[in-house]
Amino acid sequence: MEEKGIEYIKGLIPNRYPLLLVDRVLEGGDDWVKVLKNVTINEPFFVGHFPADAVMPGCLILEGMAQAAGVLAARLEASGGIGYLVGVDRARFRKPVRPGDQLIYEAKLVKARRGFYQVEAVAVVRGERVAEAAISLAIPGERERCQDQ
Prior knowledge:
By secondary structure, the chain is α+β, with helices and mostly antiparallel strands. Helix content is 22%, strand content 37%.
C-alpha cells in the first residue's frame, strides 16, 4: 500500500478535530498498517498537560493507537460502518511523548470475526517504543445498526 494523506484517513474513520490523532498512513499490508502523528505544541491538550512540562496524555496516545487500529479495520471491513473501541488490554506507557515528536503507530491484526477486530498496537518515537496495547474494535453490521435506532 502506498502512502495516503488525511483525506484518505477521514474517509475511513469518523474522528475529526480535535480528536483526529493520525495524520498520514505511511504503509500497510493485508493485516497491518503504519500511520504517523506529528505532535506539535499547538495541540489543544498541551494547554493543561502540563503547562510547565508539555507531555502528551497517555489516554490520547492510546486513542491514537485505537485510531490506527480503526484505519486497519476499516480497510478490511466491507460494511463501511463506524468502528467502536470495545476493549484495551496490556496497555503500557514507556516514555513521554513531547511536542516535536513524530509518533509512528503500528497496528497488526491478531483476529477478525464478523465485525470484531483484535489488534496489537505499538507507538514508536525515533525508533523507540513509547507505548503498546492490545486493542479490540467492533464495527456493527447493518442489522445491529438498525436495532440501535
